[in-house]
């Protein structure tokens, strides 16, 4: 991913905690910075206070939609050098972005439904896709099964509920994997074939989008094949180390 030279500079406008150990960063959008909902780009730190050259650059999904004012990225925080530097950024700090890329974008065929099966911070590109589809009033039928340990771990819950209220074609199914989190009345436990079939009437019809930890992506792909999904209709991105 490091063969692209950064092309755009952007300043930090705001940062905030959006879930347990999860932060969002809002960057001013450089002139001529264009992308498709669901794409990612490399972000490079400028003169960071670190010695590890490998830790200056990370590929990050753009969590904001193209119509939104800022570029928003979100990440699970960890003790990695890159994330610790990012966490301490002050408003006005500048970074570099390269040209956005990636094929994890909404298909164009409006009559084919989309089903997103997402784990944790894998929600970042999907938030962008759902936001843009809602803004553009696309006719695609969209279903999102979004798995987290507890509600406190789930990023963008308010946004996603808001999109579901505005978009009659979008069904939002949050899933908590820890059994019976306190006060939780929605779906709980691991996403399995039975759960998918409760929300997807014809499992062979949709294009599926999988994003999350590698183990989850692998398991979901296997389950989808077992319930009759077309392998050519499964698109996946793995979020390693997040």
Structural account:
With 242 residues, the protein is of the alpha/beta class. The protein folds into 2 domains: 8-97, Elongation Factor Tu (Ef-tu), domain 3; 114-238, Nucleotide-binding domain of ferredoxin-NADP reductase (FNR) module (Rossmann fold), CATH 3.40.50. It is 21% helix and 31% strand. It contains 5 helices and 12 strands. The strands form 2 sheets. A 6-stranded antiparallel β-sheet has the order 4-3-6-1-2-5, with helices on one face. Helix 5 (214-226) links the parallel strand 11 (207-212) and strand 12. Helix 2 (123-135) packs parallel to helix 3. The longest helix is centred in the middle third of the chain and has 13 residues, at 123-135. The radius of gyration is 18 Å and the shape is globular. The two termini are 17 Å apart. The mean pLDDT is 92.
